[in-house]
């Protein structure tokens, strides 16, 4: 039966298991929106900006392990959405972005909003292509799902010429793609086990893409059986239960000094899945590039990643989920040599994760202790980037799989749209979005999306009146010379009410608990505007202390 290109496209998405897509409507793909009218099983979530749509798709890809979908129009729609592609690429998240394109007969003339997406988005995706024949749509969609989910997961972008979407064709449907995962060579595991038996101070570092709830449980069994210390790479704290006796901390921004010393002194680092990027390696110094002081075993699903920055002693090209499954199936190693070190590292983590007090009537350490007390283990916390996140990294405990949604790319504006996607994906679970004042106003218009779909998300806006991370670096490098980092903010609670949300302003610690519980209980989207003392710049220091230290070093 002949179908329009748009009808073929939507049918393929349904065959591949898609049930939701995010986007801002555009005339370049009106045919797709029309095809959705007769295919209600694919929900189209209308967002207020293309960056929000792309971030929502990326967040759903993180949560489900299947490609999140976004539709945007040509030109500015695609460039706005590129932020979400960059997040998906650096975070190894499966995602597919569909972009409306000018008609095929206009290509190459710089038509209205015309862009060559293969050149624009090539560095931000695993694969970017343009579909010029509706009969080949099933082929392209199957390949897109395969590329996005296989090996190291990541984003794909497909351009859809406007006239191609309305042209009719006879095209057989393609079966749903089953993702492929690299297996593990038993000889590689023999070599890893030999290195582990010789080690005195091993350390396991987990992260990257391609994990699952089952892989998390297997990691916990393997670590417990061998009494191994396990740290997580930047913003991968939900890869292991943070109450597990082997969990010893977050290896990212705000790295605990004791944990840093232990990793530097380790004689074997098993990197199980992470890329070993700049944040996790502390600027490529925690593990010195390209030849680390420690014996390094690097397990990663992409052969091009192995040896790209670091030259490991043993490189294993394998899915981390497959690798940990194979490791856990082997007999446990008697761990008397390092088990005491694991206990000590765990005790050091517990001490580091105990909140202290800083400047101001609103104590963020106590607030995150409140969150741990009130929220169930399956609650999802979403955040973007900024110094406010260091309190979450340090004091919250992630226990269940995919309860942390945060960009390893360090993208601001992530938390609000990610929380919208999280609540749509898991309506039964509590969802909390964390955002600094600068972070919030990059995507805060998606409060309208939360209100439109009546999503019971609690948004916490931590307001210190500045771009805090940049001010911190500014005071460190140019003490006393403030420039371009101050913010004049709206009344965020009043702004939220104008969108139809319930909202509270919190100025002292004692107000937070009752306000947060009321927000959880209100049954719809709600926002708490937290007034934070600007001096409380990190969990351990103040702006004044940073400034004085910098001035003293100059003098």
Please give a handful of descriptors for the protein shown.
3 domains; 555 residues; Rossmann fold; 21 helices
User: On the 0-100 scale, what is the average pLDDT?
Assistant: 96
Q: Tell me the count of domains.
A: 3
Number of strands: 20
Strand content: 15-25%
Largest sheet: 6 strands, parallel
Secondary-structure content class: alpha/beta
Distance between the amino and carboxyl termini: 80 Å
Please state the overall shape, judged from the principal axes of the Cα atoms: globular
CATH 4th-level superfamily of the largest domain: Thiamin diphosphate (ThDP)-binding fold, Pyr/PP domains
Low-confidence stretches: none
Task: Give the structure's gist in a few sentences.
Helices cover 39% and strands 17% of the residues. The chain is α/β, with parallel strands linked by helices. The radius of gyration is 24 Å and the shape is globular.
Plain-language structure description:
This protein has 555 residues and is α/β, with parallel strands linked by helices. It has three domains: 3-169, 3-Layer(aba) Sandwich (Rossmann fold), CATH 3.40.50; 186-352, Rossmann fold (3-Layer(aba) Sandwich); 364-554, Thiamin diphosphate (ThDP)-binding fold, Pyr/PP domains (Rossmann fold), CATH 3.40.50.970. Helix content is 39%, strand content 17%. It has 21 helices and 20 strands. The strands form four sheets. It has a six-stranded parallel beta sheet with strand order 3-2-4-5-7-6, with helices on both faces. It has a six-stranded parallel beta sheet with strand order 11-10-9-12-13-14, sandwiched between helices. Strand 4, helix 4 and strand 5 (95-101) form a beta-alpha-beta unit. The chain starts with a strand and ends with a helix. 53% of the residues are buried. The model has no long low-confidence stretch (mean pLDDT 96).
């Amino acid at each position: 039966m002949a179908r329009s290109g748009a009808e073929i496209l939507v049918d393929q998405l349904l065959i591949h298991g898609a049930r939701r897509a995010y986007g801002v409507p555009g005339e370049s793909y009106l045919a797709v929106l029309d095809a959705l009218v007769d295919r209600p099983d694919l929900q189209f979530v209308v967002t207020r900006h293309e960056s929000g749509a792309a971030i929502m798709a990326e967040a759903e890809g993180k949560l489900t392990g299947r490609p999140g979908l976004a539709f945007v129009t040509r030109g500015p729609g695609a460039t706005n959405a590129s932020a979400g592609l960059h997040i998906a690429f650096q975070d190894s998240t499966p995602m597919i972005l569909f972009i409306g394109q000018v008609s095929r007969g206009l290509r190459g003339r710089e038509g209205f909003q015309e862009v060559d997406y293969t050149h624009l988005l090539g560095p931000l995706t695993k694969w970017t292509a343009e579909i010029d024949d509706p009969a080949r749509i099933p082929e392209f969609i199957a390949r897109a799902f395969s590329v996005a989910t296989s090996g190291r997961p990541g984003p794909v972008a497909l351009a859809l010429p406007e006239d191609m979407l309305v042209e009719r064709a006879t095209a057989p449907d393609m079966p749903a793609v089953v993702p492929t995962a690299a297996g593990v060579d038993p000889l590689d595991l023999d070599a890893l086990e030999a290195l582990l038996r010789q080690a005195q101070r091993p350390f396991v570092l987990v992260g990257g893409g391609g994990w699952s709830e089952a892989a998390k449980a297997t990691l916990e069994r393997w670590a417990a059986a061998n009494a191994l210390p396990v740290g997580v790479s930047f913003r991968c704290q939900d890869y292991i239960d943070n109450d597990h006796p082997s969990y010893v901390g977050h290896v990212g921004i705000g790295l605990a000094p004791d944990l840093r010393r232990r990793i530097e002194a380790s004689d074997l680092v098993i990197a199980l899945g992470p890329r070993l990027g700049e944040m996790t390696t502390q600027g490529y110094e925690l593990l010195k590039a390209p030849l680390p002081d420690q014996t390094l075993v690097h397990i990663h699903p992409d052969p091009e990643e192995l040896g790209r920055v670091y030259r490991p002693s043993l490189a294993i090209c394998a899915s981390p989920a497959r690798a940990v499954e194979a490791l856990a199936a082997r007999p446990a190693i008697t761990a008397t040599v390092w088990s005491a070190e694991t206990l000590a590292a765990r005790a050091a983590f517990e001490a580091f994760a105990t909140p202290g007090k800083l400047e101001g009537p609103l104590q963020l350490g106590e607030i995150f202790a409140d969150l741990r007390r009130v929220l169930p283990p399956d609650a999802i916390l979403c955040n973007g980037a900024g110094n406010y996140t260091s309190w979450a990294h340090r004091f919250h405990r992630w226990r269940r799989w995919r309860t942390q949604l945060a960009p390893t790319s360090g993208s601001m504006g992530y938390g609000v749209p990610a929380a919208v996607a999280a609540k749509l994906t898991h309506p039964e679970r509590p969802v909390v979005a964390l955002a600094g004042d600068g972070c919030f106003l990059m995507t805060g218009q998606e409060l309208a999306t939360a209100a439109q779909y009546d999503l019971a998300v609690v948004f916490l806006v931590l307001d210190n009146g500045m771009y805090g991370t940049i001010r911190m670096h500014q005071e460190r490098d140019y003490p006393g010379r403030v420039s371009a980092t101050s913010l004049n903010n709206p009344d965020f609670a009043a702004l939220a009410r104008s969108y139809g949300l319930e909202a509270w302003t919190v100025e002292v610690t004692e107000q937070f608990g009752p306000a947060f519980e009321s927000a959880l209980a209100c049954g719809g989207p709600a926002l708490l505007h937290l007034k934070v003392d600007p001096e409380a710049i990190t969990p351990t220091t103040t702006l004044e202390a940073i400034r004085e230290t910098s001035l003293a070093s100059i003098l």
